[in-house]
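New to this. Please check this fold:
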Amino acid sequence: WPAEPDRTPLGGDRPADVLLPRAYDATRPWPLVVMLHGFGASGLLQRIYLQLPAQVDVRGFILVTPDGTVDPNGSRFWNAWQECCDFSGTNVDDVGYLLGLLDEAEQRYNVDLDRVYFMGHSNGGFMSFRMACEAGDRIAGIMQLAGAMPKDPTLCNDAGPVAILSVHGTNDDTIPFESTARYAGAVDSLATWIDRGGCGAERENGSEDGRMH
């Protein structure tokens, strides 16, 4: 890798911004985080909302913030399963696009291949779950906020165990906490990963949540 890193966007005709920590040094490997925005948002808006640029330096990781495709109504989306959110049926291959970003980032930077993560909000949470299903051999873990899994567990390929941090509000009226006819709820979405990771299903009850461990 060159001493002066390339900070231009990845992704060619679907550019994805890259933020490197000020201390980036190509002589050692760095964690990589790919952040996926919610439906109708963008990579820029989501990273500002979550205040991620400051964390790049504090935590020391490479941040990639791509944009989903714009639908006929002008809303950006990720094609995570039929449940969310390719409502116009474009069938865009977002799995292939995001894996391509990983390939490009790993060629350009000294990425720690054991510390590659996805994080996503809402539609981006759905997409983070799908990336864990499709590319569990390349992803150490995901953090998803207010997303969900499909109700049919066979839609999730067994690409290996992935660490999951799932955050979901019980009063969410956009993507409900409980299961619906369209997708699994917050607890049911974790069932696949509990089994795959060999975890127990005992619930640890706190004052505000019921966490599986």
Observations:
- The two ends are 40 Å apart (CA to CA).
